[in-house]
Every structure is written in C-alpha cells, then in structure tokens.
Amino acid sequence: MRPTRVWSLLTETLANLQRGGWGGLAAVGAITVSSLILGCLWLLTVNLQAIMSDWKAQFEVVVFLRDDITAEQRDLLRRRLQTEAAVAAVQYTTKEEALAVFKRDLRGQASLLEGLGDNPLPASFQLRIGEEHHTPAAMRGLVASLERLEGVEEVLYGLEWIDQLARMVSGLQVVGWAVATILGGTAVFIVGNTIRLAVYARADEIEILRLVGATRGYIRAPFILEGLFQGLLGGTLALLLLFAGYRYVVWRLGLSPAGLLALDGGRFLEPLQVTGLLAAGAVLGGLGSLLSVRRFLKA
Question: What is the pLDDT of residues 236-281, one digit of tens each?
Fold first, then answer.
C-alpha cells in the first residue's frame, strides 16, 4: 500500500473519531469497562494462583505429641514418620523451642504471658509433604493414619482451606469471564452502532466513491480502523486504570517494591499479558466495526 494511501486512511480515521461525539465516547467507555474487568480478573487470578503455589510448596503437617510420651516412643515415631511416602522431611520441635517461638511472636505483648505458669505447649513434629500428595483425599488418609500412632495427641494441617480458596478462585474466574463476555458483547454492539451512524452520516460521500469505482475494502477501511482505534484507546485506558488501582492497593498495604518482588504473586501483569489486554480492546473495537460495515456497506 502506497504511503499516500496510508496517510489518507489515517486522516479519514481520525476525522471519523472526531465526528463520533458522544457515541464514540460511549464505545470507548464500554471497551474500557469490559477490558478493565478482564484485566482485574487476570491480575487477581495470576497473583492468587502464584500465592497458593508458594503456600503449597511450604505446606507442613504438624503432629503434636502427648506430654507423657517417652524418648523411646518419640524416636520410634520419628522413624515411622520418615518411612511415610508422602513425607519429604521431618523436623522435631521441643516444648521449650515451641515456647521460645511463641514468646518471639508475641514480642512487645509480654503481658499476655503473665500467669502462664508451666509450659502448656506440646512438642511436635513438622512434616514437609511432597507436592504430589497435596490433595485433600491424600491428606485426609495421611492424617487419619498419623492420628492412630502411639504418642500422637493431635494432627493439624491447613491444605483444605487452600483448596477451598482455589475453588473460590475458579468460581471467580467463571463469574468474571461471564461478566467480561457480556460487557464485551455490549461494547461490540455500541461500537457497531457508532460506526453505523458514521456510515449514515457519510452516505453521500460513500455513494460517490462507489460511482467512481472505489472497492469495498477502500470504503470500509477507515471505519474498521476507527473501531480498532476506539478499542485500542479503551484497552489503554483500562490498563492505566488497572495499574493505578494496583499501585493504590500496594500503597494501602504498605508494601515496598522490594517486598513485592519477595512475593511470587505481588507483581503486575507481564508484558505479554499487557499486550493481550490491549489486543483484547482492539479486537472488541475491530469486531464491532467489521460487523457493522459488512452489514451496512453491502454492494
């Protein structure tokens, strides 16, 4: 395509955008909202999945021991735990070590320890579980077998609530995609109506172009580009709003950039995801304009 033709198309497209008025603003706004919801869903899902993966990697089962357990029983129990296929590592914590950790966690609140008397905290084994066993069914079977061992007082694990969070994220994805799809369809409809009004406004000019032999592509191109520009603008606005919201949340949580990098999930979208969000806005705008011009500019 000749440079003069490209310049002519861009000029016509910008002129169409200026003439769009409130209809053009409504189209950009609809695309911004739908792209923003998609971006929020994407950002939230990516961060939560990364956080859950990090938690699962550090997941432990805690086996609390009875106070009257003997040293022989404890050693036998340690060897028994080390033979479990699901257990990757075993660490023993004495009653004194447990109390020291408790006091450290309550630093600055020493009054809470007044009247504590004898150490009420039990000794325990911390079990690191292999990732292939991070399923509710596997954990329930493991916990049931551990609770039957001699000298065991109680077994605690927190995988179930992580899986509940995962199910919540999956449900959030379904709802978010449904809402984004509905809003995306609305955006396509609004863009289509905006382009249709532009076609009607230039009906005489379009008829002259047809009479002088202009092709369908030549006539349609400025309107399709108008929709693409509206979509790209909406996607850009959505991206800026998403980043501003992200920075606000970071500020409210008091996280520093170094603190964010220490978290697997505490990051903004990757460059490929940013490109995908902008492309989604452009696709919505382009699809709306394409459907409109194909219907109203038939020869």
Answer: 999 999 999 888 887 777 655 544 444 444 567 888 888 888 988 8
Per-residue pLDDT reduced to its tens digit, 9-49:
556 555 555 555 566 677 788 888 888 888 888 888 777 77
In the chain the domains, ranked by start, together with CATH numbers, are 3-55+162-296 (no CATH), 60-157 (3.30.70.3040)
State the average pLDDT over residues 155-172.
Answer: 74
Burial 200-226 (b: 16+ CB within 10 A, else e): eebeeebeeeeeeeeeeeebbbbbbbb
